[in-house]
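Hey, quick one: can you model this chain's 3D structure?
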Amino acid sequence: MNKFDDQATQALLDKSLITENQYQEITAYRNLNIFSLNAELKLFLYLSVLLFTSGIGILIYKNIDSIGHIAILSILLIVIAVCFYYCFKNSKGFQRTETAFENPILEYLVLAANILTCIFIGYLQFQYKPFGTHYDLATLIPTIVSFFCAYYFDNKSVLTIAITGLAAYIGLSVTPQDLLHNDFYANPNLSYSAIILGGLLILYTIYSSKINLKTHFNIIYLTFALHLISIASISNLVGDNSDGGIWMLFGLVLLASSYYFYKVSHKIKAMSLYVFMIVYAYIGLNIFLFRIFDTIDSSDIWRLFVFLLPIYFIGSIVLFIKLIKNFHKEITE
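Sure thing. Here's the predicted structure for all 333 residues.
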């Protein structure tokens, strides 16, 4: 038993939250050094789903001429139907609170079925164009299916696909690489769309908490909202949009966002939200300060800035570590 577990268990005993007999039982159990493979097995299941669906895509790409479009679509449809049949048959139905399959494999079967559905609809639109030139419908329909599956089967992985599809429907790409390459300044509407979508996701988490609807999904919605709002704001702080002081408006948006996520990360005890909030706020603050100094035409100011820069960065690192340690202590007590 490691030192941290020993201290935590001793603290429970000191606070009379457990009895001496319970303390001895916990200590004896931990000294057995038994560990769970649950996380590792789930990781392998997740990787197997990704490899299987990726293999389907590669198979279609390399053998599209020899297999035929109808055959490929038929095989995909059969596999999707079989997956959903087993999932619906073994599910507990829709529940407002957190639920789970008795067999965890079915959770990943839902994920596979959902990904294959996206592939099927995308391939159908690409080859036969059943939606005509309305390519947005080819994105919207899988998104609706994903939201339905996420809530019916209580699947967080499918929910991430659904939110990604929703963002793609309004013209955003929300993978880390694509977000950083989105030209928010060249297309201001893209920035506004990202911030509005992030705001709507936040409002939905507030609403779902009030009606007690899948509140454990809130961390996913909030994570997407944090990235969307923060990256859109930072991109416009960096962009050459000084005319009219628009960059200051995005600075205020980032400030308000950082404050909100600071409060909510403490409320729901989410370390990931807290860390990313600090990182985005720190980047935004540095950009904001640099732009302010850039407007000051004084070589003395810049000399002082360069002199204090090492101290500033060292102090920032120390402060960052201290904040993380204090937050970790707060959520573990």
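One thing worth noting: Residues 116 and 294 are 51 Å apart (CA to CA).
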